[in-house]
Amino acid sequence: MKIAFFSSKSYDKTFFSRYNTFQELRFFESPLTLESIDLVNGYDGVCVFVNDQLNAEVIEQLAVRHVKIIALRCAGFNNVDLQAAKAHGIAVVRVPAYSPHAVAEHAVALIMTLNRKTHKAYNRVREGNFSLERLTGFDLYGKTVGVVGTGKIGEAFAFIMKGFGCKVLAYDLYTNPVLVSAGIQFVELDELFAQSDIISLHCPLTPQTNRLINSESLEKMKPNTMLINTSRGGLIDTKAVINALKNGKLGYLGIDVYEQEADLFFNDFSESIIQDDMLMRLMSFPNVLITAHQGFFTEEALTQIAQVTLQNLVDFEQGQLNETTTLVN
Ligand code: NAD
After folding, report:
1. Which residues pair with 191 in a beta bridge?
2. Residue 299: what pLDDT?
3. Which residues are catalytic?
4. Average pLDDT, whole number, for the chain?
5. Which ligand 1 atom sits closest to the C-alpha of 294?
6. For helices 299-317 and 10-19, what crossing angle results, to 10°?
7. Topology of the domain covering 2-98+299-328
8. H-helix or E-strand containing 56?
9. How many C-beta neighbours within 10 Å does residue 26 have?
10. Which architecture does CATH list for 100-290?
11. Distance, CA 76 to ligand 1 centroid (Å)?
């Protein structure tokens, strides 16, 4: 099959080319939008990432151009109108699990950096400033960590935090028996908000979880709480979070995802004037750490993403779509 990749970067080309044997792949840097839709002419399928917007209009145009499959090279699928794909008979496949450890460990990296301020220490020492003033952190040992969403990533994260000697509280629509048997307590969301020193979000973005962190939920948290989001930007009402940072309700914010990230993330704007005032305000806080959606970015995860996506395409060609990776068949 001929597959057009959108929003592709050098690392996509490297990993997909390394493992590809069957497909004809073409890598476009452009995101998939109505403006770039003509690039799909002559292709059987598209391979897209987290910020390509596959809304009903785009999907209709894919159908007009005889595209038969949308292969997501990611786990989340909140950017795809699945009903529209089904209505047009376009299959949708994804990579449901690629190293959950990669994202869980990145959440821990955000916690460790915010807490022990290693980013500031690195710069200070390089400039010959060996002062410890204002670098005070806290022991993770004995602190209460709330995990919202205990699927593959949330589970891996909960175990790491347990290893630090934290008390781990969990909330999910479904209790995770592996975590329960490890002694992790499932509580109501309000209790998790009220008791946690650190809250880490690991649930998908759905209509139910949209802006789960808002002024009301922030009000329920302890003063000086650390909030970590490596899941999807839409889980957080950014304006409310800025207010909570200003009034000290939130003591720290670590995010790998941002509601308006599609306009910025994965691209270099270092010589441009960034127009997103909310993001710039966030960056002005000394207790905020932002990374540009790199939670997944490990050798192991990139290998799995490429291998599973290519297998999904082979399975589709052979009429044997895998149930666990297929969203629409
Ligand atoms: P998963 O499907 O294994 O787990 C998600 C969990 O969230 C499930 O247990 C589900 O029951 C729970 N959930 C669903 N709705 C909920 C709600 N309303 N309240 C509480 N819990 C709810 O998914 P995963 O592999 O653990 O991934 C979690 C999320 O991480 C993905 O949806 C994606 O948005 C994000 N992600 C981010 C990156 C990154 O690079 N930063 C990479 C991969 C995934």
Report:
1. none
2. 97
3. 232, 261, 293
4. 97
5. 40
6. 60
7. Rossmann fold (3.40.50)
8. helix 56-64
9. 15
10. 3-Layer(aba) Sandwich (3.40)
11. 8
User: CA-CA-CA-CA torsion for 128, 132, 135, 140, nearest 10 degrees?
Assistant: 120
Q: Which among 110, 193, 231, 235 is the best mutation to test ligand 1's pocket, defined by most ligand atoms within 8 Å of the CB?
A: 231
Domains 2-98+299-328 and 100-290 share a fold: yes
List CB contacts of 218: < 8 A, sequence separation 6 or more: 240, 241, 243, 244, 249, 250
Ligand 1 neighbours by CB, cut-off 6 Å: 75-76, 97, 100, 103, 148-154, 171-174, 202-206, 208-209, 230-232, 256-257, 293, 295-296
pLDDT digits (tens, 9 = 90+) for 247-279: 999 999 999 999 999 889 999 999 999 999 999
Atom 1 in ligand 1: residue holding the nearest Cα: 151
Task: Read off the pLDDT band of 22 (50, 70, 90).
Answer: confident
Q: Where are the domains of the chain?
A: 2-98+299-328, 100-290
pTM listed for this prediction:
0.93
H/E element holding 305?
helix 299-317
Query: What Cα–Cα distance (Å) separates residue 145 from each residue in 160, 176, 242, 272?
Result: 11, 16, 22, 38
